[in-house]
Protein: Putative secreted protein with PEP-CTERM sorting signal
Amino acid sequence: MPVKKKLISLALAACACTGAWAAPVSFSGSQNNLSASVSFDLVGSQLKVVLANTGTSDVRVADQVLTAVFFDLGGGVTLSPVSAISGGTTYKGTQWVSDAGTNVGGEWAFDDAISAYGAHMGISSSGLGNIFGPKDRFDVDSNLYGPESPDGLQYGITSPGDDRSTGTGQNNNGGGVFNSPLTTGSVIFLFDVAGPLDLDAISKVTFQYGTALDEPNFAGTLDDNGGGGTDVPEPATLALAGSALLGLAAARRRRRG
Structure:
């Protein structure tokens, strides 16, 4: 086979192996006046997860604060937590605490060996009955509030419609939210990915509110957003495609010379 045709064949074969880049997938759900969403997006070799409280009602008590999401991935995939960043401003009552873009990794945790609502992975700002512990935090060297562990309501996600002046109670034990730092809107999580992650394989999504599994929770339904798709291309496959294309370019230059 001529060199040019051979290089073209190698490039096409390598590109076919990589497939198209996966589009994000998102899930959403609601119950009474509560609503939430979560999106999963491949960014290079990392998975970005955005957990959002999409409710419009005022948040007055603990079981109206979004604190966790549970989910399953396909087999053979391992996630390693990288970061947790606030997507909105954090307040404690009416007092400003921090702006969007703040590292909240010391207040959020991830575990991939749990059992909750049929799922085996979860992200949470609350211990939820010791499901999540201090070693599960995204940033074990950071602690913004309270004990060095995911605990209580702190840094859970409040709705964009929350009136920060109306949180009932003066402490968490009274069911109130006024004395807990809460992030408005969303939190963004990054994970390193090992293994062939197919976004279409994500399942068993459940949103959790409050500080215990017997508080409000509901399933997330896959949104019709055209998401899902292919596995993350392996670096070796991308290298093969690149080498073949570079070889083709070199062959063309020699021919012109």
Summary: Confidence is low (pLDDT under 50) at residues 3-20, 226-242. The chain has one domain: 3-231. The helical segments are 3-18, 235-256. Residues 3-231 form one domain.
